[in-house]
C-alpha cells in the first residue's frame, strides 16, 4: 500500500438537476409502469432503512474507479491492496464520505468477497465504517454477510466520494418493471441516449423496497490461470452492491419479480471521476 498509484482526473459534464430529472423520468418510463423523479433535500441516510455512515451526499462530489477486473487475470494480484484514506487523498477529498462497491480485503478476511462500502473518515484518523462484505459459505454455498473488518480493500472499487453533507439530490422512484432493462442499466442508458459522448455520472444509493433481486458473490480466487472473461477493462460504467438486514448481500444484477418490484434511489451528479491504478496488464486473449 506504499506503492505510488497512477491517477487521472477527468472532468464530468454536470447538467442542472432539473434537466437530469426529466431525462431520467422519460427514460425510466419506457421500462417501468410507475415513475417519479424529483429534486429534493437528501433524507438522513444514517437512519433506517439506509444505515449509511454519513447523513447526506453533498459536498465536493466525485467518482473514483480503482483498479479493476484485469487484476484477477490470469491469477489474482493479491498485492493490490488499498486503504480508504489513501484513495480519498488521491481523489483530493479532505472530508471524505465514501460509498460504493468493490472487492473486500482478502488479505484480512482470507478469501475473496464482495464489498458494500459506506465509510466516513474522521480528521483524527478514526472512521465510521458501517460497510459489509459478503462471501460464499463453503459448507452450504450460501451467503455469509459480515461487517467490514477494517478500513482496507483490494483489487477494485467504484465509489462516490463526497463530504457527506446535506443538500439537494435526485429522488428516483420506479416500480412495476415492464421492460427488459434492470434499474441501473435503465438509468445508464437514459443518460447515454440523451447526452451521448458527454460524460454524465450518477452516484448514490438505492433501495429495493418491494420485490426480489438476483445478486452474485464471486467465489474464492482461482488457483489456476483464467483464460477468458467478459467485462470491460477501463472505466466501469455501472457498479452497484446491495445488502439487507437479514444477512444477505452481493453484486446487484437485476430484479426477479418485475411485476411487484419497487425502487427508491437518491443520486447526485459528480464533478469529476478519478481513475486510480488503472491496470496495464493485458489478458492472454488480447496479447
From TrEMBL:
Assembly behavior: Monomer.
Keywords linked to the UniProt accession: Hydrolase, Metal-binding, Nucleus, Zinc
Domain DUF1907: 23-276
Keyword Cytoplasm part of the UniProt annotation: no
Subcellular location per the Swiss-Prot or TrEMBL entry: Nucleus
Family annotation (InterPro entries): C11orf54_DUF1907
Coiled-coil blocks: none
Domain of life the protein comes from: Eukaryota
Protein name: CK054-like protein
Stored SUPFAM superfamilies: AF0104/ALDC/Ptd012-like (SSF117856)
PANTHER family the record matches: ESTER HYDROLASE C11ORF54 (PTHR13204:SF1), PTD012 PROTEIN (PTHR13204)
Pfam family, one: DUF1907
UniProt keyword annotation of Zinc present: yes
Main location: nucleus
Amino acid at each position: 500500500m506504499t506503492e505510488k498509484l497512477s491517477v487521472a482526473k477527468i472532468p464530468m459534464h454536470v447538467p442542472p438537476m432539473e434537466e437530469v430529472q426529466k431525462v431520467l423520468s422519460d427514460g425510466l418510463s419506457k421500462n417501468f409502469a410507475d415513475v417519479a423523479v424529483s429534486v429534493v433535500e437528501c433524507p438522513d441516510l444514517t437512519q433506517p432503512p439506509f444505515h449509511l455512515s454519513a447523513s447526506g451526499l453533498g459536498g465536493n462530489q466525485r467518482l473514483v474507479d480503482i483498479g479493476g477486473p484485469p487484476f484477477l487475470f490470469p491469477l489474482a494480484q493479491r498485492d493490490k491492496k488499498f486503504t480508504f484514506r489513501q484513495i480519498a487523498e488521491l481523489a483530493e477529498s479532505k472530508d471524505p464520505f465514501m460509498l460504493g462497491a468493490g472487492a473486500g480485503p482478502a488479505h484480512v478476511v482470507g478469501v475473496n468477497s464482495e464489498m458494500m462500502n459506506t465509510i466516513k473518515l474522521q480528521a483524527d484518523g478514526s472512521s465510521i465504517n458501517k460497510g459489509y462484505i459478503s462471501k460464499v459459505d463453503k459448507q452450504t454455498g450460501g451467503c455469509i454477510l459480515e461487517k467490514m473488518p477494517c478500513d482496507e480493500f483490494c483489487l477494485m472499487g467504484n465509489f462516490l466520494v463526497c463530504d457527506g453533507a446535506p443538500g439537494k439530490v435526485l429522488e428516483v422512484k420506479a416500480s412495476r418493471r415492464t421492460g427488459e432493462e434492470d434499474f441501473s442499466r435503465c438509468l445508464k442508458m437514459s443518460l447515454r441516449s440523451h447526452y451521448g459522448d458527454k460524460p454524465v455520472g450518477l452516484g448514490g444509493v438505492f433501495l429495493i423496497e418491494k420485490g426480489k433481486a438476483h445478486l452474485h458473490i464471486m467465489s474464492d480466487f482461482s488457483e489456476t490461470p483464467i483464460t477468458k472473461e467478459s467485462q470491460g477493462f477501463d472505466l466501469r460504467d455501472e457498479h452497484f452492491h446491495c445488502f439487507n438486514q437479514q444477512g444477505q448481500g452481493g453484486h446487484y444484477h437485476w430484479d426477479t419479480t418485475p411485476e411487484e418490484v419497487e425502487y427508491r434511489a437518491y443520486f447526485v451528479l459528480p464533478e469529476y471521476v478519478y481513475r486510480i491504478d488503472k491496470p496495464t496488464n493485458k489478458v492472454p486473449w488480447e496479447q
